[in-house]
Each structure stands twice: as C-alpha cells, then as structure tokens.
Amino acid sequence: MDFTISRFAPLPGHAATGPGSVGLPAGYRAAGIHAGIKRRRRDLGILVSDVPSVSAVFFTTNAAAAAPVLVTRESCDCTALQAVVVNSGNANASTGKTGYADAERMRALAASELALPIENVAVSSTGVIGSPLPMDVIEPGIARCARTLAEDGGEKFAEAIRTTDRSDKQLGLTVATKTGDVHIGFASKGAGMISPKMATTLTFVTTDAAVPAGLWHEMMAMGVRESFNRITVDGQESTNDMVLGFANGASRARVGDVETELLAQALQAGLLALALAVVADGEGATVTVRLRVAGARDAGEAERAGRAVANSPLVKAAVYGRDANWGRVISAAGMTLPQDAAGRFAPDVSYGDVLLLRDGDPVELVPAQAERLEAVLADAELDIALDLHRGDATAAVYFSDLSHDYVRLNAGRRT
Amino acid sequence: MDFTISRFAPLPGHAATGPGSVGLPAGYRAAGIHAGIKRRRRDLGILVSDVPSVSAVFFTTNAAAAAPVLVTRESCDCTALQAVVVNSGNANASTGKTGYADAERMRALAASELALPIENVAVSSTGVIGSPLPMDVIEPGIARCARTLAEDGGEKFAEAIRTTDRSDKQLGLTVATKTGDVHIGFASKGAGMISPKMATTLTFVTTDAAVPAGLWHEMMAMGVRESFNRITVDGQESTNDMVLGFANGASRARVGDVETELLAQALQAGLLALALAVVADGEGATVTVRLRVAGARDAGEAERAGRAVANSPLVKAAVYGRDANWGRVISAAGMTLPQDAAGRFAPDVSYGDVLLLRDGDPVELVPAQAERLEAVLADAELDIALDLHRGDATAAVYFSDLSHDYVRLNAGRRT
C-alpha cells in the first residue's frame, strides 16, 4: 500500500474512487448545510442508514471529553447506531451542564426528524472549545438539514464536518465478491490537535456489507489502531475525537470469510490513507514524515521513542527547514530510554535511503549521498528510520512538521 | 521571593548584585575567550577554584548523553571537582568514539594547564549536535584561556558558555554571617531544548562558603529540583545538560546551622531566578508562564498535568497570541488524567486573578473582568492556575510561549 491518499493504490480486488467523486454505499443518505454556526461554510451534517445497522465507535480518552462524546458514550447503543448528527465551528467542549443538555437536544431533534430512537443516533461536534452551542441556529438547522438528506449528499456532509482542513478527506472503496460488490465510504476531518490516541479527527465510515456487530468492532478497532492512533500533528489529543463506523448490509452481497478478510484489509487501508491525509493537512504542515522505529526492547519502548521524536518541536522545526537534523531525532528518542551503564546508546538513523548515523557514529557523506539527501529532503514526504539497536520491537508513527503557519493558525485566533 | 531575575528581591540578610556586575566568590578565577569554534563570539571558558573544593553535579538523564557528560560522569570525582572547562558552539554529542576521546583530551589539557588531577576537572559542551569538535582550535584555545584566568573573569566565562541566549544569565548573592560574608555566584546558559528534567542548561554555581560535600549535594539537589527541573521551553531534554556547583570554603566565614539554612535558601532562590531567566530567554519566548496545578490526587498527577500543559504547542501558541484559551489548558491536562466514570472532570482555571472556568463551567466575565484579563495577557509574565478538584497535591511548572521566532530559530539553521 502506498503512502498518501493522492497516491492511494487500491488493493487487489478493490477499485478506488478519488476525492470529490465518492458516493455513499447502498442504503445511506447524508446532508450538509450552512446552519449559521460559521460565517459562511457548511457547519451541520447528518448521516443516516435507512436500514438498521451495526456500529463501532471509538472516542477520545481525554478526561476533558466534550459533551457530545459523553452523551454518545453514556446513553447510546454504540453497537447499533444508525445515524449521526455533527456540527463544526463549535466543539461543545468545556461547556458544563448546558453543553451536555445541548448535545442531548441535538441528538433528540435529529432522532425525531429521522424517526429513530435516540439511542441509535450519535452526536458529534468539532471546533472552538468553551463557547456555548448556538442552539438558536442549530435547532432549525437540524430540521432543514434532515429535509435535504440524499443518496448523493456525502460530499456536502464531508464539507460540513471540516474545520481548518485545507483538503477534502473522502475515500470510496469497492470490494468485489462473488455475489456482488460491497462498498466502504470514508469521511474525515483533521487539522490541529492531531495525536495518538486518535486525533481531533472525526471520521465516519459507512459500508453496505453485512458484518456481525462483534466482528465489525474488531475490524474497526484494528484499523484505528494502525492508522489514527499512529499519527500526530502536535501531540494534542482532542476533547472531541470520534471514529464511528456503520455497517448496514444493504448491498445484499454475501460476505464470507474471504470477503471478510478483503473487507478488513480495505477498511484498514482506507483508514490509514485518511489518517495520512489528516497528517498531510495538519495545521501548517508542509511535510509528512513516516518514522519507523526498530530495534526497541519491546513495543512500548518503540512507541514511546517514536512519539517523542514525532512530537519534538525541534525535530519538527528542522523538518520544516529541510534540515536532516538526526541529532535532534536521537536526542528526542533518548529522552524516553534508560541510561544503561552496560551499553552505550548507539543508534542508526536514515533519512530516506541515506544512512546518516551508524552505531552512534556520524557517517561522512560522499558527494553523491549528499546530493541524494538534498533530494530526499525536498520531497513533501519524508521517511526517517531509527534503529535503537536494543532489541527486535518496531513501531511506525506518522507526523507533520512545525511551520510558521502552525504558529500563525494557533496564535491568531480561536480554532 | 519574586518571579524573575529582573525583579529578584534578595532574601533578608542577602544583597543581590545585578547582572553585569557579578564578581566571583573568594578563591575562584575564570576566563572566557574566542577560540574559533564560533565565528566571532567567546566560545571557550575555564572556571577554577584555587583551593580544593567540594562539588555536586547533576547531568541530563537523556540516554543520548553527550561525550563530555559521559566523561565527567564516568571518570571524575564528582564530589571533589575543582574546575570545569566548557566550550559552546559544538555539543560534542553523537560524535561516537572520537567525540569521547576529544572530551577526554579537553579535560586532560585543562587539567595540565591548571596543574590538577584529571579527576578533579569537569568537561562540558553545548551547541550543535553531531559535528566533531574542532580540536585544532580548542587545543591551543585551552592553553590561551588558562593564561587569562582572573578573579574578575566571571563575565567573560559566562559569555563563553552561551549559545542562542539573548540575555546575560549571572547572579551574585551575599549571605551575611557573624564571622563574615559568604558569596554565591551563578552563571547559566539556556535557550532551546529547555525541559525538565533539567534543560540545555549549563549552570555553574560557585560559593566560598565551607560546606561538607554531602550537605552541599543535598542543598544543590533540592535547589535544582525546584528550579531547573520545573521549567520547560519545548519539552526537549538536552544531551548536554549539566548543573555543577563548587563550594571551596575560601571565605573563612564559619557556616553554622543558621547560616546553612540561609545559604540553602539563597542557593534555591538563585537557581530559581536563573531558571526563570532561562525560560524568559527560551528560543523565541515572549511570555514567561508560571503554571500552578492544584487539586491533583498526588504529586505525580499534578506534575504530569502541569507538564502536559507546559509542553502543549496549542497552549503555547495561544499564550503567544495573548489568547486566554483555557480550553486548550484543560484539554492538555485532560490527556494525562483518567476518565472517571464516577466524577466528571470539572476544573477551575484562572489567568492572573481572573477566574475563567469554575467547576468545569465557563465564567461569564463582566466588562471590568474582561478588561482586567486584557491587562493580565499584555504582561510578559503570566500566572495560570489550574485546580483539578481531584485531591490535594500541587505542582508548579514554568514555561515559555511558542512564537514565530521559535520556528525561525529552529528551522533556519543548526543550533
């Protein structure tokens, strides 16, 4: 599988449709409108399965979780969700009891419009923390939004969930089975506060495959673990993160063991593609880094080292400056490792295919290598490999650089 | 005790001398020269006690510790150091076996010039990671530097240890005893890679008080814990951090229990003043934040929450933008806290004396409070108080903001 959504190569047996041309799988309708939370852009969306569906949902682990997260987690049937109502422009986070009541009200209104029990409707928000939801525009907005639900409404829905995203984040995959095609649709929002575990990402997955609830949860959990839980823009876990997947079985295709395996692969590939698109579109990001840590004593050590590098502002600023500053990489990783009296910390570091540090000793580059390094750094995607030489465990972490635009975006105004 | 070095108020019985007028305590000489590691500025310094001294030294805990740290830690008598040789402009970090030999050579040359055993001479470096030390200029530099050692050489020494520091970081304190005055001198370098535990800080403390080695270690350890281990600029622990204190007894004053207590207070106050000066001069820093976390279940929880806030790029960028974005504060703290099914996370947050969040509910500000908040944010020093309402433990963390200058300084070139 390839690295970014733009280069996303469909798996054997799948056909990818590019951003901007993503339909919804069978049995779903969606809508996105401008309710008036933001000045001009779409800011309210509804996604619904017209037939009962199974669902799997993953929330932020932040103790300061927002009201919609609390409401969905505490009083929905999270394995049988059939719809979600989402607003952008306001996170309904740190809004106290009023915020909780507002999230409940959003859900109740959407459920009423959709003629569904409230426990089958999730509610989700993203945007500014600490301001009360403008219910005066949201309440009529929900009714208006429900009236525009359509099979081709996926794009408008995807637009409505975005905040400072610069790029569209949709993907459609088709998995061919002997009894017909099944489809998976993905819509994400990202940008800022992107970190394991999860990101301020809202991601909604729809499939028309028929999958038992337990299996669907397992497939989604594995996909999220290897995608959204592996990315970081700024180490900040949001109050509002949610990844929600529906499977409604409307395709009528029979999903046997082989198809289940293909479906799981496609799901994971799609989630990773979306997660990488979120990194590439991180606030101010100019470079997407794929860091591979190897040679750790155990998976935890590999992951801690990888995340320390991925969240180091010094590493990130150097990447922005197109400086192969491997010293900052090993210094950041070194923060997380024990100081062994026995063995010196003597790692290898490569940028792209250029080895810069071997067993803790800097490699003197010949002119051809130096030239190659220039080319590696000029790309918008950068592979860094760090071998700790301490054991056999590995981890991958994906992150963005730290640019002037990050500071400008986050210092200038509430986002 | 007051907040920054500029407002540093001497303790009762102490007289502070301001930056730029700091002499050395009795029995010490120092020097700082331009050896040629940097283009123009002083880059090599020696500090020596002319009489045997006791010492206490604290190193980075980074597994990627630099060669001078390893050499000093592994083969010096760290309780009886009498001199230190320091260079700036090159960290001698990640320089492999050559770097280790170079650090040993630096120490051997200095020891020879000072006619001291090598185990009584520390070696220290700060600057770029991963380049070999230019021994061709350092070797003659050490001899030249040793020839200029003088009782009034403290300022030149302080200048020689600085890297991207914008401000002078020296302080002198006098403690009056019945048998005469004792003095403490402090010289620090900071800027960038400033984080608990310790900072890329090099800090050298000299006193002419007579203190037993064990007691001196205890006093220094407590001072460092409450100062340099409480600050962060960017969460990055350096490969080269070192805080080294000498006590040589040359004052001839008798230090009894009362004087020991005063001396410990002065030492701690001085270290905190220097640590805050390092934060204020953090790369690109425009604001120094003093964060007080209260209401944690235990000290560890208080500290984790405080450091998560202090290292949050979103919080830091908001401080830079003079935005009282308490939502980012509780979101960062929330990342470190468990999600309790029992009790909601309902903290208080104040900026200065303005309460913005009470029990998790935003406080609506009356115009006078909003005006007051503007004034609080306009200051170069900001107090943020976060009460987690979970217990009785507290922690203080000091940090700087994230500005365009931070990115410019760290993206533009190797530092």
Can you tell me the number of structural domains of chain A? 2
| Residue share in helix of chain A | 25-40%
CATH class of the largest domain in chain A, anyone? Alpha Beta
Secondary-structure content class of chain A: alpha+beta
Description of the structure:
The structure is a homodimer of 415-residue chains. With 415 residues, the first copy, chain A, is α+β, with helices and mostly antiparallel strands. The first copy, chain A, has two domains: 5-280, L-amino peptidase D-ALA esterase/amidase (4-Layer Sandwich), CATH 3.60.70; 288-411, ArgJ beta chain, C-terminal domain (Ubiquitin-like (UB roll)), CATH 3.10.20.340. Helices cover 32% and strands 25% of the residues of chain A. Chain A has eleven helices and 17 strands. The first copy, chain A, has helices at 67-75, 96-114, 135-147, 154-160, 213-225, 257-280, 299-310, 313-320, 326-334, 367-378, 404-411, and strands spanning 14-17, 28-33, 44-49, 54-59, 83-90, 121-128, 170-177, 180-189, 202-207, 231-232, 242-247, 288-296, 348-351, 354-358, 361-362, 381-387, 393-400. In chain A, the strands form three sheets. In chain A, strands 10-17-12-16-13-14-15 form a seven-stranded mixed beta sheet, with helices on both faces. In chain A, strand 5 (83-90), helix 2 (96-114) and strand 6 (121-128) form a beta-alpha-beta unit. The longest helix of chain A has 24 residues, at 257-280. Chain A starts with 13 loop residues before the first strand and ends with a helix. Residues 1-21 and 193-199 of chain A have low confidence and may be disordered. At the A-B interface, helix 2, helix 8, helix 9, strand 15 and helix 11 of A face helix 2, helix 8, helix 9, strand 15 and helix 11 of B.
